[in-house]
């Protein structure tokens, strides 16, 4: 068992002030068969006149919801806590047939179908087949920042042959689902410092396996899952809507460390 | 019985006076049109209606049970009655609603069931509308006006009073209300059915609101008043579609939704009328399975018939559809409002070939139906002549403490004599629907 | 029911203003069209100047047609009625269907008698409908606060138009007196924001009735600024 301490914070700065700001954050990790979350804490700014409360979506994610009616130029939040990685069977959300169906950002097009037919796996177990697909994908994609964005669909990323962890995850999900494998998208923390990471979970033998397509391997012991869904659009870590004419500039920091 | 209640002109003038209109977008511009009224009523006998009533209650009860099942245990899938694919790949199935039990367990509070009567007198279900079926206000107000212009006709004909619709609607809202006031949520002035939204608000006493009047805190929905005070809302009769309801759950670009309203709903603090996700049951593909649902959930044979329907998804059906395309009607399961409906009989040889290819490639996307030769109803034109037009009937079924059928309905007729399409957004008009109280 | 939302306040206020604007301009137009029986229609330019409406008309026939009936002329009486109707349509549940139907009937009347040669006679039903509208809101509306806001709009418009049209001083004085009374008595808790400076200026003007006439333009500004109805409109994601 591994003990980890994690932190995640984001700060959004607006050139002109905004008001009636409503947001939903999916950055409070949930305990499951793999990770036990201890002492989760959160802070939100600005707090005066704001309302903050918890909710839960139908994927099982904890939602940190809030409404800030007053005008403000800065919005920030900070989440921290401890996690124990226990690695028992993770069965959260099974049987989860819905994860076998294609979703908006992981929909197969001609490119993905062609790729699948050229790289159809030969192993028997779903997880082994998934790893074959993962390997094939890893060898034909180039990790490159700035060529895609959070709304890029799997088909377009594969056409481009390049992208970031989110794109790897989406293409991988589309391939697995073509193969009849149930699988889902995961956002989380995985690095000592820096940004958040995206990976996947593959359903096989009535449990989930964490697979990191961007690194072509199973997830490591320092990974902490924040949320999951069919693809990114089901579970953005942060989404909000407000009155005002300016779009914010965001800075994010996160860290995971052993202790 | 073809007793015109007055000449149509008088009633149409009164309808104009009361602003009974629907909006339509033509070339990107908003226009308001009167919904032409024809004075010859559709008459349904007491015994016919009693049969319809039983059949509609049975159908809507089964549809509500289906919704409850697919959003919880999914037994009907496990038992192989409805294929998994028809639930999960339907655009109407919303994963965001999975596991949510709405207040009092009711999903479809106001159901608009479209029927036609064949020439042999048999009624067939054309489609179920379980999302936001509109149109009840038109026959409701028309009846009021007809009683004013032709009191003698109503003294003689034993027509059941249909003006209890408002009471039914209010009772339904009150029954599922989770504490707080009732509101009607409209996308605004430029919605096709704005008249209806404001009319129902006036008559039921619910507040007519737009998204910016509402907000959520601590998973409770509130109405803002002008002094920045707040009033708790317990039920929302919402007239905006699922995908625009909550920008933090569905389409983020929605500017007519209410952030966090889905959280309030999931927490059981507010009733949404109708429940989001109902599209899972009124999908044109799911239609095929409704008689099977009735047997599965209620252990009864369906009282009302579906139009004979084929699913190209099944191999046998596909073969039949491809062989008989020229006499069938094809419907795209993802389209609504009379769009995406094509008749094989209207197709050229090339078009038939194209459609056969499309149906083979995208078998899940279409259903095919036999064309029902339904009865034509007489319409008086401006010159006073009578012509026959195709017409359907939208029956309104309200589910609260019990399931009840409104003893009237919206009878719509096609604009052109030979057209089968009776949707108000594609021209055409409406009639009063009389349900007789005795034979 | 008693829940006025912030958007509704704006509509209530402008419903009152536009309805009153139509009523007053119609009356003054009626007086004008009576005069031209002897004087000839060519002095319509003077009439427009009085009510500060730009003279965009080709001749007197054009004026009589477009100024009264043209929905594409933003200053026409009909356009103002359509604005009243537009505000009414979004307030059906507050003002009730019968009230709305009178505005609709007035609009339909304009539409049906364009091109008439007896304009005053043919537009009489419009005036009747507006009288009926006021009777209807007074007897059908259940929300007292909302009713008071419509009357506030009516009162503001009445004084504004009296000043612009140079109506008899006494009429203007009484209108202004009523406006100040209405504001002080009912509007305090209504959610409308009152411009206190403008209110004291108006009260000061009431103290010296003989000077009403020379202060006309300043008073118009004060009346226009008396009530601030505003709400946020911009939304960004």
Structure description:
- The complex is a heterotrimer of chains A (259), B (439) and C (237).
- Chain A has two domains: 2-87 and 237-258, Immunoglobulin-like (Sandwich); 97-234, Roll (C8orf32 fold), CATH 3.10.620.30.
- Chain A has 259 residues and is an alpha+beta fold.
- In chain A, the strands form three sheets. In chain A, strands 1, 2, 3, 4, 5, 13 and 14 form a seven-stranded antiparallel sheet that branches. Chain A has a five-stranded antiparallel sheet with strand order 11-10-9-8-12, covered by helices on one side.
- Helices cover 17% and strands 44% of the residues of chain A.
- Chain A has four helices and 14 strands.
- Chain B folds into two domains: 8-301 and 374-435, no CATH class; 308-370, Dna Ligase, domain 1.
- Chain B contains 15 helices and 21 strands.
- In chain B, strand 17 (376-380) and strand 18 (386-399) form a beta hairpin.
- In chain B, helix 1 (8-17) crosses helix 5 (137-149) and helix 2 packs across helix 13 (290-298).
- Chain B starts with 7 loop residues before the first helix and ends with a strand.
- The model of chain B has no long low-confidence stretch (mean pLDDT 91).
- Chain C is mainly α and 237 residues long.
- Chain C has one domain (6-228).
- Chain C contains eleven helices and two strands.
- In chain C, helix 1 (6-39) runs parallel beside helix 8, helix 4 packs antiparallel against helix 6 and helix 9 (169-186) crosses helix 10 (196-207).
- Chain C starts with 5 loop residues before the first helix and ends in a 9-residue tail after the last strand.
